[in-house]
Design goal:
The chain is mostly beta strands. Helix content is about 5%, strand content about 40%. The chain has a single domain, classed as Immunoglobulin-like (Sandwich), CATH 2.60.40.4370. This is Transcription factor TFIIIC triple barrel domain-containing protein.
Amino acid sequence: MMENQSLCDDNMEEAEYILLDLDDLPCEIYIPPNAPYVLSGLDTLNPILTIDGKIKLIGQYDETIGTCLVFYESDTPPVVHEEAGPSEANLCPGRRTLDPKQTKSKQVKPVTQLQNILKFRLLENNETEDAREKPKED
C-alpha cells in the first residue's frame, strides 16, 4: 500500500503559477471583460497572448525578487447585533440590527506564491511569432 502511494507522489507534477502583467500596454488598448484569449508558447522565452482574436501581445519572463504572494479578496457579511435584555432604548427586544457606522469589510485569503511574472507588450508588425527563441535545454 505504501509503495503505491510513493509511486503516485513521484508521478504527480507540481503546479506553477505565473502572473500575467498587462500594465505596460498603452491605455488606448481596450480589452473587453471576459474576452476570449489564447496563450501559446509558454515553453518559450517569449510567449504570445492573443486576446479576442484581435490583440496580439508578446511576453517576457521576469523572476520575482523575494516572495510574491497572491491573495483572493471577497466581501464579508456585515456583523449583525442582536438586542438582548430590557432597555429603554431597546424598543424591539430580540430584534437584529445592523450598525449603520460599520464600513464594508473584505476577507483576504492567500492563494499561492509566484516565482515568475510574465510581462506583455504589443507584438509589433515587424516581429513574427516564429522569431521566438526556445529556452535552452539543461
